[in-house]
Structure formats: structure tokens, C-alpha cells
UniProtKB/TrEMBL annotation:
Cellular component annotations (GO), alphabetically ordered: extracellular space
Domain of life: Eukaryota
GO molecular function, one term: serine-type endopeptidase inhibitor activity
The protein, known as: Serpin domain-containing protein
């Protein structure tokens, strides 16, 4: 109802207040951690000013003219400090593109000694091997937890407000990996319960120096599998954004880059998600 939209602890108003507080809380005051969450709305004519105002107030999202892919890619590159240089290949159809960019760079609280980094071999679950540089640590105070199928090591950054979690399945093979992931995320609280069981333990850790580049990939199939269906078809579901009842989400794209380096003990990553409404039929998004 209107009361839920306008404020209070629940409904749309409560959700807006929650995300505003969440975004403000992510911005770190730790000098050894840089965490940035940036949002933007790229719109053609037809997007309601009230929608733009809500995006600015609750999500600190600036409104920009939807002119083409190059301007969007430049914004993404700037917000992710150059880690993601290209998200879209062409200007998307439809009245709007909603963008979210995340950048994180943190220094390990307990640093890896660069002198102990040495050559090693990383073995994939499919049987493949790859030469790599292995960072080493041997500590009796490493934060450790485990589940029935996984070993977990927690590596805090900076003052400890942010933590990296390394999970290693107890058995080898693709089936063991899938089972470990399923157990860790079996329900809304399973991952939190696993982390809550952490305790100091002697751990000899070898962590490869690596860089992973994912996407841009469509999240549309995964979202539909989770029950998010109505937003991907016309039906007036976005009348708070535009007066055009034929607008729907054409696609949701995600791209991420994560880099773990040995000699500069930090992790950097960026993620971008683009959603845009489209008039007419569905299909691949930009």
C-alpha cells in the first residue's frame, strides 16, 4: 500500500532505507581497504522524474543520458579503476539501463611474506594442471571452520571489517565441488552458520596468485530459475519507472574480475550488472 511505499519499517520504503544504510556502511573508513559501490541510471525520454529521484536518494544513483555503449563502458571503467573496461558491445534497446559497479581493494591483515612465494602447480577438479605462483603461510592462529564437505579459511583485510573466505572441498572432483557449494548455500543461513563456527587453528596454507575474469554473462536464466519471471515480460510491472506498460527487463548482465597478487598482498575485484527495459519482444540484452 501507499504507507509501505512512503516509509516505515517494511514494504518498499523500508527496503529503500535498508539499501541506503547498507551502501553507506560499505564505504570503509579503514585506510587499508578501499570499497566502492557506484550506481547509475542511463535513461532516454519517458523515464519518470520520481523514479530518478528515488534512485538518487536511496541508491546514490546519478541519472545520465542514454547515448551509447561507449559512454557506459567509460563509466564502468572509471568506477572499477580500469579492471572492467568493456561491458556492452552496442547501445541497448529500451528506455533505460540501470548500472551497479563494485570495486574492492584490501590489504591482508596478516600479510603473506613475498619471500615465501614460490612456483607451484594448481590442479583443477577436471584433472588439468597449471603452473602458478603459490603464496604460503604457516600459522597457529588462522581462522578456520568446516562443514561436512568443505574446509574453510577466513582471511581478514585491514582492521578486520572485511574478510575473504577460501573454501576447499574435502574430496576431489566436480561432483564434490558441486556438493560443497550446495551445502554452503543450502538455505539463507547456512553460509553464515559455517562462518560463525570459526576458531583459531594451525593451518599450512598455499594460495595461488591468480586473476579470474567472468562475463559479461546473462543472469536471466538463473533469475528465472529462482522464480523471477514476471519482470521479463510486458505487463505493466514498471509503471513506477515509466508510463509505458509494455516496458520489461530484456536482460540482466554480470561481469566480474578478481585478482589476488602475491607481492602486493591485496585482492581487487569489480562487478557490474546492467538491466534495461525494452519495448516489444525479448531477446539478448546489451
Amino acid at each position: 500500500g501507499d504507507g509501505a511505499r512512503d516509509g516505515g519499517g517494511g514494504g518498499e520504503g523500508g527496503a529503500h532505507a535498508y539499501f541506503k544504510t547498507l551502501l553507506e556502511g560499505i564505504q570503509s573508513s579503514d585506510p587499508k581497504v578501499e570499497a566502492i559501490v557506484a550506481n547509475s541510471v542511463w535513461a532516454e525520454g519517458g523515464v519518470l522524474e520520481a523514479f530518478k529521484d528515488t534512485c538518487k536518494t536511496s541508491f546514490n544513483a546519478h541519472s545520465l543520458p542514454l547515448t551509447g555503449a561507449e559512454a557506459i563502458n567509460a563509466w564502468v571503467g572509471e568506477q572499477t579503476k580500469g579492471m572492467i573496461k568493456r561491458l556492452l558491445e552496442q547501445k541497448p534497446d529500451g528506455p533505460a539501463v540501470l548500472l551497479n559497479a563494485v570495486y574492492f581493494k584490501g590489504e591482508w591483515k596478516h600479510k603473506f611474506d613475498p619471500a615465501k612465494t614460490e612456483g607451484g602447480v594448481f590442479r583443477g577438479f577436471g584433472g588439468s594442471t597449471q603452473d602458478c605462483k603459490m603464496m604460503k603461510s604457516d600459522s597457529k592462529r588462522t581462522l578456520y571452520s568446516e562443514t561436512d564437505s568443505s574446509h574453510l579459511v577466513l582471511l581478514p583485510y585491514g582492521a578486520g571489517r572485511f574478510t575473504g573466505v577460501i573454501a576447499l572441498p574435502k574430496k576431489e572432483g566436480p561432483a564434490a565441488l558441486a556438493g560443497a557449494v550446495s551445502e554452503l548455500f543450502a538455505d539463507a543461513g547456512s553460509f553464515s552458520r559455517a562462518l560463525a563456527a570459526q576458531h583459531p587453528r594451525h593451518v599450512v596454507l598455499s594460495l595461488p596468485r591468480f586473476k579470474v575474469d567472468y562475463g559479461a554473462k546473462s543472469l536471466k536464466p538463473a533469475l528465472k530459475g529462482m522464480g523471477v519471471v514476471s519482470g521479463f515480460r510486458p505487463g505493466g510491472g514498471f509503471l513506477r519507472m515509466t508510463a509505458d506498460p509494455s516496458v520489461f527487463i530484456q536482460d540482466v548482465l554480470h561481469k566480474a574480475v578478481i585478482e589476488v597478487r602475491a607481492f602486493c598482498p591485496c585482492i581487487r575485484g569489480g562487478g557490474d550488472r546492467a538491466t534495461h527495459g525494452a519495448r516489444g519482444g525479448g531477446g539478448g540484452g546489451g
